[in-house]
Amino acid sequence: MPPTAADLIQGQALGPLVDHYAVALTAMEEPMACVRQMVRSLLEGRTSRTLIDDIVLIATELLTNARRHAGGAISFILDLYEKGVTVGVVDRGMDTAAVLAAPVCPLASMDEGEAATIDLDELPECGQGLYLVSAYATGWGVEPAREGKVVTAALLTGSAA
Known about the structure:
This protein is of the alpha+beta class and 161 residues long. Helix content is 33%, strand content 24%. The chain has five helices and five strands; from the N terminus they run αβααββααββ. The longest helix is centred in the middle third of the chain and has 21 residues, at 49-69.
């Protein structure tokens, strides 16, 4: 099982908390668009465009997983630290053990020769979200929440976020 968000944050060199943002998503018609815009506007000028894009990707994947596998996202959390960022999605899912500790991608374990023989139309269109989160985040974790569970990803920015 992945570490809890508390373990994750303590295990990273994020520094002190600078800002905390949380938004309820249950009544929104377009929560995905809202979260993407929120992340971009809050991080603009605080870190690189590339890192902002990575954080938007992670937030999108966490929200998509909440929608597909856990009855929808309840809220989104963005915490800015002196040297990093955490994003969290609270969803209605109660089973933290259902979240893979080590997500895998079928193509990631293949060499170039094997990958070249794959028919791209045969690849699944879903199931790679946590692999992307794991690949782009410095670390991530899942833990129970009052409403269900929260999946949190941390990214080191190296400078004040």
